[in-house]
């Protein structure tokens, strides 16, 4: 399952293919800030999937100022209001305001771009595709490496790469989009080629940005580390992270003990 590299970077990687940012812009219709004209065109070309997430496409166009760089996006109020978070903002703030603008300085533009893509189209790049021949789901462009290369994004809060689907899951939690949470978790399960250090950083981010009663994403990371324990055991990053401690590693200890108990119960006496 894992490559046997000649150095630590290879030894701590989940395959020979390292995940990173893609230089390709193909199929990234929401990567650049959306102007009013782009939003109007998107409304005309909305797919059937978008009808499920946004019953009506119309109403006022709202400007959104995203991130430290203050990148500007535009979206229909009706589309944004599919999210309880934005619905509350629009109701409380905009009914009495002529300037329809939302400022989200802590949001990452690339993540918000994917969130808007989901609200309009019902999915975000790389999209899920069903392989009829194999009767399985895959990520778009996975065969040529582009989908896998889009698995991580730079996040200012950790000053480094982090799994994109994890950040989207946490954003969906914040904005009240349960279907997007399920989609992001399913996509993350299809990713491969992720370094141990990125997985641990992403796991810490997941713990910091999800409530304790939302165990799905946290359990995903615990199960991933347990399944890949031989690789993590050799990881210097894992050692450093465990020395720093935190609830993640207490949960991991409990999960490992439960795993060993299950194995003991199944073994013949």
TrEMBL record:
Location of the BTB domain: 60-123
Biased segments, Low complexity type: 43-55
Biased composition (Basic residues): 16-28
Biased composition (Polar residues): 1-13
Lineage top rank: taxon: Eukaryota
SUPFAM superfamilies hit by this protein: POZ domain
Region (Disordered): 1-55
Basic and acidic residues composition bias: residue spans: 29-41
PANTHER family, alphabetized: BTB DOMAIN-CONTAINING PROTEIN, BTB DOMAIN-CONTAINING PROTEIN-RELATED
Protein's name according to its UniProt entry: BTB domain-containing protein
Origin species: Mytilinidion resinicola
């Amino acid at each position: 399952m894992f490559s046997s590299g000649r150095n630590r970077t290879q030894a701590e990687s989940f395959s020979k293919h390292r995940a990173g940012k893609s230089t390709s812009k193909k199929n990234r219709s929401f990567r650049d800030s959306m102007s009013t004209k782009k939003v109007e065109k998107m409304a005309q070309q909305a797919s059937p999937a978008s009808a499920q997430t946004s019953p009506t496409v119309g109403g006022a166009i709202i400007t959104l100022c995203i991130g430290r760089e203050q990148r500007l996006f535009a979206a229909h109020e009706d589309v944004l209001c599919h999210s309880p978070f934005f619905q509350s903002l629009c109701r409380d703030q905009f009914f009495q305001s002529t300037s329809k603008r939302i400022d989200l300085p802590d949001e990452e533009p690339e993540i918000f771009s994917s969130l808007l893509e989901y609200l309009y189209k019902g999915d975000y790049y790389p999209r899920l595709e069903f392989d009829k021949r194999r009767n399985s789901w895959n990520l778009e462009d996975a065969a040529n490496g582009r989908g896998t290369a889009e698995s991580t994004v730079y996040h200012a809060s950790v000053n480094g790469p982090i799994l994109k689907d994890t950040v989207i899951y946490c954003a969906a939690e914040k904005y009240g989009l349960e279907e997007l949470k399920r989609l992001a978790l399913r996509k993350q399960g299809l990713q491969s080629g992720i370094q141990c250090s990125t997985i641990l950083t992403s796991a810490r981010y997941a713990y910091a940005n999800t409530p304790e009663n939302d165990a799905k994403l946290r359990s995903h990371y615990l199960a991933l580390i347990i399944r890949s324990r031989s690789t993590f055991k050799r990881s210097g990053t894992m050692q450093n992270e465990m020395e720093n401690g935190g609830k993640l590693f207490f949960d991991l200890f409990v999960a490992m003990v439960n795993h060993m108990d299950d194995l003991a119960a199944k073994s013949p006496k």
